[in-house]
């Protein structure tokens, strides 16, 4: 397989690199699990090498997949979950639409009005995200204030309805489970930067699994082929 510029000077072939990155972000595997799995293929790869690949190509994967996402609808469900970084709990803001499609996510060290505003601004910056008609949130008092300020700044439509109805947010709370399950096995992150990189990769693989791309990729083989095309590799 001919190496693409993104993989130039790498000792291993691009398909092996993408395989380990994809498996780490998608399944409950440790770096050392992947070392053993690669050994079965006759490859000797250090766990630190695989870690560096995840850190380098995870964000690249997220950026490339974003260009292929289908439009979300205008009914948002917003909530936060928790991620442990350096022994401290951080806040992972997440939003899905009424059909369960991921709108966006944002890791923050704080849980306040400014963090909520940054999350909404980040989500609205993507072309596949429909401007909200209604936003369902929990009892966090920061949300209504953040939304009102964004309306005044003309960054959100003035007529948005805010709902604070717990049972309507079940869909986003259930969607947290995949992220929390994958992160739990990692036993916390060593740095905020590392957490952001890996969480973004996990989230984007979750989007692919939920069939949010224009090219439907329900099977593992199709997911592999889709990601290879994103990186300019032959299937």
What descriptive keywords fit this protein?
alpha/beta; 47% helix; Nucleotidyltransferase, domain 5; five-stranded mixed β-sheet; 5 strands; 2 domains; 235 residues
Describe the structure.
This protein is α/β, with parallel strands linked by helices and 235 residues long. Helices cover 47% and strands 14% of the residues. It has helices spanning 14-26, 31-40, 47-66, 113-124, 142-152, 170-184, 192-209, 220-230; strands spanning 75-85, 88-97, 102-108, 134-136, 161-163. The protein has a 5-stranded mixed beta sheet with strand order 3-2-1-4-5, with helices on both faces. Helix 5 links the parallel strand 4 (134-136) and strand 5 (161-163). Helix 2 (31-40) crosses helix 3. The model has no long low-confidence stretch (mean pLDDT 91).
Write down the Rg. 19 Å
Going by CATH, the homologous superfamily of the largest domain would be Ribonuclease H-like superfamily/Ribonuclease H
What would the principal axes of the Cα set say about the shape?
globular
Got a strand count?
A: 5
- Helix segment count? 8
Read across the widest sheet, the strand sequence of neighbours is 3-2-1-4-5
Note poorly predicted spans.
Answer: none
CATH architecture of the largest domain: 2-Layer Sandwich
Helix content: 40-55%
Q: Give a quick account of the main beta sheet: strands, pairing sense, barrel closure.
A: 5 strands, mixed
Range of strand content: 5-15%
Kindly report the CATH topology of the largest domain: Nucleotidyltransferase, domain 5
Q: Assign the CATH class of the largest domain.
A: Alpha Beta
Compute the separation of the termini in Å: 10 Å
Structural class: alpha/beta
Overall mean pLDDT stands at 91
Number of domains: 2
- H/E element order: HHHEEEHEHEHHH
Domain Integrase catalytic: 55-235
InterPro entries: DDE_dom, Integrase_cat-core, IS_Transposase, RNaseH-like_sf, RNaseH_sf, Transpos_IS6
GO biological process, one term: DNA integration
Function: Involved in the transposition of the insertion sequence.
